[in-house]
Amino acid sequence: MAQLRFVRSKTCQHNIPNFSNANRSILALTLASSVLQLHDTPWLPRSWDTKDIFIMKGHSGTPILSQFYVSQTFTSAAAARAAITRQRLVKNETVFALGVALLELAYGAPIISFVEEEDLNEEGREDSMTKVSVATRLAHHLNMRESDNYARAVLRCVKCNFDTFAFDFDDAEFREKFYEGVVVPLQDDFEYVTGGRKT
After folding, report:
1. Region 157-185 average pLDDT
2. Beta partners for residue 5, in sequence order
3. Which pLDDT score is estimated for 13?
4. Could you give the count of Cα atoms lying within 13 Å of 185 in the half-sphere of its Cβ?
5. 37-to-32, 44, 151, 183 alpha-carbon distances in Å
6. Which domains does the chain have, with CATH numbers?
7. How far apart are CA 190 and CA 185, in angstroms?
8. What beta strand segments (E) does the chain contain?
9. The pLDDT of residue 66
10. Handedness of CA 23, 114, 93, 95 (dihedral sign)
């Protein structure tokens, strides 16, 4: 399977290409596995998104899926305040961020581009809950365009629905439920679409 590599950067380009099913499965499994492995390291902030992922391209412009790079970003004060506000409904920011990244892979665009009126606040503006609202709506409809495994894994991430009392990776039961409910289904999809071959 592909590995994540790391770079330090203050800015990243938000570019979400449309991947084939096989390539999307490779990247989705790599991201989910990396969240499980890196949750307690400085390389994976609590709140991250696809702007933090670099995918190298070859001379022909084709993505090199064996080389993913994660950028360590520097969170602004405004982003930090928004994350704190979101925590009221988001049980685990890191897992929610994974769900958003998987949604963006599936839809081929930032989820914020799918904002509807119902996702805005009373003044008709985006706020700290807009992304949560959009992600929840898109996750509930994802099974119409993706496999059941993928759609269920994303829904679990967005809603942090793992049938546990704790929602932190420090808890062994939560880690196990995350592995069973997210990594294993994405692994099954990966093996199905790639024939189990390694990248």
Report:
1. 95
2. 69
3. 38
4. 17
5. 9, 10, 22, 11
6. 3-194 (1.10.510)
7. 9
8. 3-8, 53-57, 63-72
9. 54
10. negative
